[in-house]
Amino acid sequence: MKITLFLCALALNAAAAAQPVLVRVTPATLARLLAKDPMIRVVNTDETMAVRPVSRAINNESTVLHDGENWTLVPTGALVHLPAAMKSRINAKPVGTLLPWNEFLNENQSWITIAELTFDQAAGNEEFPVNSEELRAKQDKVIVTVHQNNPAPVRIAPIFPALTSR
User: Fold this and answer.
1) pLDDT (tens digit per residue) in 42-87
2) Which of 152, 155, 156 is nearest to 74 (CA)?
3) Quick one: which H or E segment has residue 27?
């Protein structure tokens, strides 16, 4: 019983001590803080202005796939093959309903197929072989690379193997 009471008292004191103290930093407040603790360093904010990061809108980093009624987004670089007949279905103004990737793929398997990536290919450590036999058999469909059933961008391997010099 005494231990429980003691632990509750410690918890209450710890909770009270953990609350942040908010102050408006004025020259007078800053002078008081510096007088109490000489280890406080003041950084001149005029010289080091914070830079706002460049806007990374999702539509700038994605490719739109649409079927006329529904649409979805895949990362730029996940589309590895686009037949000429399917160019009208890519990057047009999205019309209709935004669907999650899995639902969109289920509804449009007639013109979309997937190519599974290994972990190293999805991480960018290994290049994706675009001219593989499996992909040549599916040339009439749009090919989207996926890792664990989610679209993933890839680094494309060169068509011809690199020549090494001796």
Assistant:
1) 666 555 455 566 677 777 788 899 988 999 999 988 888 888 888 8
2) 152
3) helix 27-36
pLDDT at site 15 = 53
pLDDT in tens, 1-50: 667 766 766 666 655 554 555 656 777 877 887 788 767 666 665 554 55
Q: What is the per-residue DSSP string for 45-83?
A: TTTSPPPPPPP--GGGSEEEEE-SSEEEEEETT-EEE--
Which residues are CB-contacts of 112 (< 8 A; sequence separation ≥ 6)?
Answer: 65, 104, 105, 141, 142, 144
Tokens at residue 115, please? 């190519």
Q: Could you tell me whether strands 142-147 and 112-116 are parallel, antiparallel, or unpaired per DSSP bridges?
A: parallel
Instruction: Quote the CA–CA distance of 29 and 157 in Å, as a whole number.
Output: 61
* 153, 128 contact by CB (below 8 A): no
Q: Which residues of 79-91 are buried (b: 16+ CB within 10 A; e: fewer)?
A: bbbbeeebeebee
